[in-house]
Write a structure and sequence with these properties.
The protein has 14 helices and 14 strands. Helix content is 28%, strand content 15%. Helix 2 (44-52) crosses helix 10 (286-316). It is globular, with a radius of gyration of 23 Å. The strands form three sheets. It has an eight-stranded mixed sheet with strand order 4-3-5-1-6-7-2-8, covered by helices on one side. It has a domain at 25-248 and 284-412: Alkaline Phosphatase, subunit A (3-Layer(aba) Sandwich), CATH 3.40.720. The protein is α/β, with parallel strands linked by helices. Residues 18-388 form the Sulfatase N-terminal domain.
Amino acid sequence: MQNPTSIEPTRIEKARRPNVLLITADQWRGDCLSGVGHPCVKTPAVDALAREGTLFRRHYAGAAPCSPARATLYTGLYQMNHRVCRNGSPLDARFDNLALAARRAGYDPTLFGYTDTAPDPRGMDRNDPHLTTYEGVLPGFIARQLLPEHERQWLSWLRSRGHMNAVSRDIHIPVGAAPGEISDAAPAYSRDETQTAFLAGEFIRWMGEQDRPWFAHISFLRPHPPFSVPEPFNRMFKSGDGPAFARAQNHQAEEDSHPYLAYAMPRSDKGSFVYGATGSLSCWNAEDFAAIRAIYYGMISEVDTQLGRIWQALKDAGAWDDTLIVFTSDHAEMAGDHWTLGKGGFFDGSYHIPLVIRDPASGGAGGTVDDFTSAADIFPTLCERLGIEAANGLDGRSLMPFVTGGRAEGWRDAAFWEFDFRDIAGGEAERYFGLRSNECNLAVIRDTRFKYVHFTGLPPLLFNLRDDPMELDNVATDPAHLAIRLCYAEKLLSLRARHLDQTLAYTELTEKGPVKRRP
């Protein structure tokens, strides 16, 4: 017979260790929550989570597009350190991440969806098929249900439900619409047959199989384009719904405002947003963007509906009060602001994302945080909550002081993000600007008053956000703002100096051996 005193601490430890559910909804704007006062979008499931948790109103991605943004989320590092510059940039195998750390804490981290992680090719054979795509799986995760952008697993599931025409992503084209047509008609699949519903169902089935604390990451594709959604979400919003677009008078005025926009805007492809469309995004007019935004709002409602289904499943399984939930996005969506769609560049519309953390062990239910927080903060938060230590330096900080209803000393007073527009495979940006690859990048520091955008090889930008919240008037060359521009450039320089890789910088070898200090 075992000695009860020898096993009781283990029982206590297991009782206290929470389930962890990390949910990302790809390309969800931070202002598109009814809980932050959006004029038309309603998100009852996210709002319900926030009432029991903590809502972070000024949360920002660390980079764009998907791979760089997710690298920051998963590693707690800024792009300047993890160096995932574009989709297809490998993630250096030396970096720790939230899945590997959770594994050290005794979990078996399980993925539903995708992580868009390109593997480190060093030590791999050049013919390895894993080196032909950026849609790899973050080290540390096991994949219960993959769903990369080709969506073949979901299409196969649709065929098993009688949709014999679900053989390609043409299934997204609304019934009766021509390929490339902007239409609020519904596709052939129903609200219960979306990619979101498919992944939610796979997670719920898996959860019912678990008999010990679990760690799951559900990575939903929606509301990422193509912009198409089934009934009733397809006509839930009208083209005139929503706030005024933040944009110049027309496409040309927007392009003329900065050399980067003159390069990027005409090269944005319609087919990335409406399935089957061809040509430049610059051909769409104001009515087109309004129609697309209405569909985007409907896609958010569709995802929120499935989040509500997950909340109910957790409650039905008796797991709600044992589960730490983090809901966020990788990056946001321009949604017609500045006459564009998608993500990238420097505007807030690409980087302001939602974050809600609900910890059942916390006393901070219903809290709202107005401090600037970063995707880089998620990994350190999980480390503190689970009692584990990252294997390398981190740029983010734990959000647990906010989650528990308190404050964090010496917290940042600005948001910071980066964007890299190099083109390693084709060299198009480099040729256009006459720049080297390592000069095709920008960095942003943004507080409540001003936003400074520093380009390595192009002119800077400065926006007075109090007078110009839509970011339309660049005052970087205005003599009255030159001192402010210098101040923010110095702030950005100091921030980058503070966050240079610190993995071994906090270790010193002495005559008594290594001395290690953690900030």
